[in-house]
Specification:
transmembrane helix, 176 residues, 0% strand, membrane, mainly alpha, Cd81 Antigen, Extracellular Domain, Chain: A, single chain, disulfide bond
C-alpha cells in the first residue's frame, strides 16, 4: 500500500520507506533460509523422536493421530518408525492381545496379516519403517517451499531496486 501511494503520488519518503521494508523482509527471509539449512540435521532427529512418541503412546488412543499414522503407513507402504518391531512395545500392543501390527501395515488390505509373528519374515506386512519416507516427503516439500521463497525474494529485490530508482528520479524531478 505504501509503495503504491508513493508511486502514484510520487512521494519520495514513501518510496524509500517501502524499499526499506522490502529490504527488512528480504533479510528476514535470508536469515530463516540460513537457519533452516543449518538445522537440517535436526529435522531427522525431531521426526524420529516425534514419530516414535506418536506410535508408542498415542496410536489408537487419539482418533486423528490413528488416522494420520494409518494414512502414512498405507501411502508410503511402510510400518512403524524403523520397522514392524516398533509396534511390539507400544501402548497399542499392550492393549491389543491379538494383533501384532496395525492393519495399515498390511500389503494386501483384504488379507489378515496383523497376527503374523514378528520374529519371522512376514510376507504380507510392510517391513520397512516410515521414517525415511516421511523425511523424503518433508524434504521434497521444503524444496518446493524454498523455491517459491527464492522466487518471491527475487521479486522483492526487483521491488527494492525499482523503488530506489523511482525515489531517485522523484528527487531529481523535484529539484529541477
Amino acid at each position: 500500500m505504501i509503495g503504491c501511494v508513493g508511486t502514484m503520488q510520487e512521494i519520495r519518503g514513501c518510496l524509500i520507506f517501502y524499499a526499506f521494508m522490502l529490504m527488512a523482509v528480504f533479510m528476514l527471509e535470508t536469515c530463516v533460509g540460513v537457519l533452516a539449512y543449518m538445522y537440517e540435521g535436526a529435522v531427522h532427529e525431531e521426526l524420529a523422536r516425534n514419530l516414535n512418541v506418536t506410535i508408542n503412546n498415542k496410536y489408537h488412543f487419539d482418533k486423528e493421530i490413528t488416522k494420520a499414522v494409518d494414512h502414512m503407513q498405507t501411502t508410503f507402504k511402510c510400518c512403524g518408525t524403523s520397522g514392524i518391531s516398533d509396534w511390539q512395545y507400544s501402548r497399542w500392543a499392550r492393549h491389543n492381545s491379538t494383533d501384532l501390527v496395525p492393519a495399515s501395515c498390511c500389503i494386501s488390505p483384504n488379507m489378515s496379516c496383523v497376527q503374523v509373528p514378528l520374529d519371522i519374515h512376514p510376507s504380507n506386512v510392510h517391513i520397512e519403517g516410515c521414517l525415511e519416507h516421511l523425511e523424503d516427503f518433508v524434504r521434497i516439500h521444503l524444496i518446493i517451499v524454498g523455491g517459491v521463497g527464492l522466487g518471491l525474494s527475487i521479486l522483492q529485490l526487483f521491488g527494492i531496486v525499482f523503488s530506489c530508482c523511482l525515489a531517485a528520479r522523484v528527487k531529481d524531478e523535484v529539484s529541477l
